[in-house]
Specification:
Residues 1-21 are annotated as: Disordered. It is found in: Nucleus. GO terms for molecular function: transcription coregulator activity. Helix 2 runs antiparallel to helix 3. The chain is 74% helix and 0% strand. With 179 residues, the chain is mostly helical. Among the domains are: 28-104; 142-178.
């Protein structure tokens, strides 16, 4: 087995890449570029789906209206082509998804808290955390108290409205009897 020359001959074209080199290049696809391809594929899927719905909206049902078989066949062919392309796009998206998962399989998920740099010291972190945990409890207690007061006020307003309704009813009935 001979090795290919490192430098192409003078004035000549570089030798074509070996099949192993092509396979290696295909395996070393950047995950970020795969994500971009996936994003573009999702956008294509959305566009195709919108076109399918547009075609379906423009199709007329054969309910006694003049029927043009050629127009119907053209629209049906377009619809089938869009559905076929949609199927292809979903397969492409599945391949991109599988490849991204394969590339990221060895990575340990990093919690987002570790990605944010902190300037504080460790002691102040613990104090802030305990204060931050007690603050929501106090707020919750206050909210519950306010909620109880609001329910009481609502109950009082309901009683007043019922009394006014009864009073108006009695006044209307007295006026009806008088006339």
């Amino acid at each position: 087995m001979t090795t290919p020359p490192l430098v192409p001959p003078f004035g000549g074209q570089p030798p074509p890449p070996q099949p192993q080199q092509q396979a290696q290049a295909a395996r070393d696809v950047n995950t970020a570029s795969l994500c971009r391809i996936g994003q573009e594929t999702v956008q294509d899927i959305v566009i195709r789906t919108m076109e399918i719905f547009q075609l379906l909206r423009n199709m007329q049902l054969p309910n006694g209206v003049t029927y043009h078989p050629n127009t119907h066949q053209d629209r049906l062919a377009k619809l089938q082509e869009h559905l076929r392309m949609l199927s292809v796009l979903f397969r492409k998206l599945r391949l991109v998804y599988d490849k991204c998962n394969e590339n990221c399989a060895g990575m340990d998920p990093i919690p987002p808290e570790q990605l944010i740099p902190f300037v504080e010291e460790d002691a102040s972190k613990h104090e802030d955390r305990s204060a931050a945990q007690s603050r929501p409890n106090e707020e919750k207690r206050e909210i519950v108290e306010v909620n109880k007061k609001l329910k009481q006020k609502n109950q009082q307003l309901k009683q007043i409205m019922d009394q006014l309704r009864n009073l108006i009813w009695e006044i209307n009935s007295m006026l009806a009897i008088r006339s």
